[in-house]
Amino acid sequence: MVIKILLLLVFFGVMVGVGVYSRKHATSVSGFVLGGRSVGPWLTAFAYGTSYFSAVVFVGYAGQFGWKYGMASTWIGLGNAIIGSLLAWVVLGRRTRVMTQHLSSSTMPEFFGQRFDSKALKIVASVIIFVFLIPYTASIYNGLSRLFEMAFHVPYAVCVVVMAVFTAVYVILGGYMATAINDFIQGIIMLIGIVAVIAAVLNGQGGFTQAVMQLARIPSDVEATAGQPGAFTAFFGPDPKGLLGVVVLTSLGTWGLPQMVQKFYAIKNEKAIQTGTVISTIFAVVVSGGCYFLGGFARLFDSDAIRNAQGAVVYDSIIPFMLSKLPDILIGVVVVLVLSASMSTLSSLVLTSSSTMTLDLLKGNVFKKMSEKKQIVTMQVLIVFFIVISVVLALNPPTFIAQLMGISWGALAGAFLAPFLYGIYWKGVTKAAVWASFLCGVGITVSNMFFRFIASPINAGAIAMVAGLIVVPVVSLITPKMKKERLDEIFACYQTETVLHKKLVVGSEKDNED
């Protein structure tokens, strides 16, 4: 217990210290929200990766989908690395950085407002972000606190409040730069921790080969493959269609999440984008691939400890139970690992939400004039407000972690992915198409919460994203286009004129003329 407490004290001390150190970068709005658009590749790549993977992945998703799909759940981690990291950087990275600077936009709603000349789009986008980031934040508290209860026997409510307070302190002090530096430190912890945990858990089952052999003997309880042994070690698992839905939501979803996309706003230069692409992808392979690989052995830990009074599996309890048998030092590493993943994601969420509400909703609408200092103070107050709301929700969570995250990701990515992606590449996207995408993403997700016409919130979120990708081009083709002059001005940032100067060599004027 002493070792675990010391690790936590050091961790929290470093986080707050970084916040104090980063105060000098948070004296302007651009510095507080984007780190002055001068963040290098390593910090940006780790900020992207640590914001991507939190306790939701490690405790909630790894346990639930490892139980459902067995070793095939590793495909989710690989999908996160290839689609959610590599392709996201390649497809969105450079064009996002260039256009958002050209349009002087610091947030995703501000981008929609500037790109489509619509103040109403900016306001509605900011409300969507604020509302649907709350359940995501609550899911992070939930997952982390379950692990703390296992390791320290500390009440759930105490865990939630302590984590919220420390996150608020360093984000308020240092803004984006504090979160980026802390994300880098937390990312290193995550890389080391996940490798150590996987090795320890498999060793406890007699090694990798023995663990796979035991898993292969367990018969499937999935309807399509019911009773078949070996389904949980099969290449695509017992339910390939369900697995595909999870891959789509957790991988493609990052392309439309404001807290993820806004990382590209802050990156320093072209070289940083290239380097960041490689670093971010490797990080995702190790962390996400490792989490889902570990979760793939969940069935080996079936016991009364992970079931409720009715005998149903409590998915959020699987990973904590798997880890409860580890030595104290490793449990301490795991707690710091998940704490790192969770606080990095939480800091990104609260900064995104507060900056969106301040710059896109309050500024120019509620307050006609806001000085730079007033904007920063307002964001700091809203960080506290946002954390308090999410804590209240986390103390009485309505459902499992994965469902909370599925609702949040489905609504946000369903609404924003298509208009943002098409918007930075295609001049033909119309204002009406953006409205249609907002309605489609939020409409499918929210209506499914009440009517459950799609059994899984995960699949509902994936369908909302795919629907947006179809709706935006279709609606754009049949609705009025923006003025050509304005579109040319917006896309001018991608077209720079290059002048080549050739040196004249003395004595060979004729050759140079030719």
Your description of this structure?
This protein has 514 residues and is an all-alpha fold. It is 73% helix and 0% strand. It contains 20 helices and no strands. The chain has helices spanning 2-21, 29-34, 41-52, 55-69, 74-102, 108-115, 119-152, 156-204, 208-216, 240-252, 258-265, 270-295, 318-323, 328-362, 372-395, 401-425, 431-451, 457-478, 484-491, 509-513. Helix 7 crosses helix 15 (372-395) and helix 16 (401-425) packs parallel to helix 18.
Question: Descriptors for this entry?
Answer:
514 residues; mainly alpha; 0% strand
Tell me briefly what this model is.
73% of the residues lie in helices and 0% in strands. By secondary structure, the chain is mainly α.
List the helices and strands and how they pair.
Blueprint: H1 2-21, H2 29-34, H3 41-52, H4 55-69, H5 74-102, H6 108-115, H7 119-152, H8 156-204, H9 208-216, H10 240-252, H11 258-265, H12 270-295, H13 318-323, H14 328-362, H15 372-395, H16 401-425, H17 431-451, H18 457-478, H19 484-491, H20 509-513
Number of strands: 0
**Multimeric organization:** single chain
Helix proportion? over 70%
Low-confidence stretches: none
Structural class, by secondary structure, is mainly alpha
Main beta sheet, described?
none
Q: In one word, what is the shape?
A: globular
Radius of gyration: 24 Å
Number of helices: 20
Helix/strand order: HHHHHHHHHHHHHHHHHHHH
Mean pLDDT: 82
Beta percentage is: under 5%
Cα end-to-end separation: 81 Å
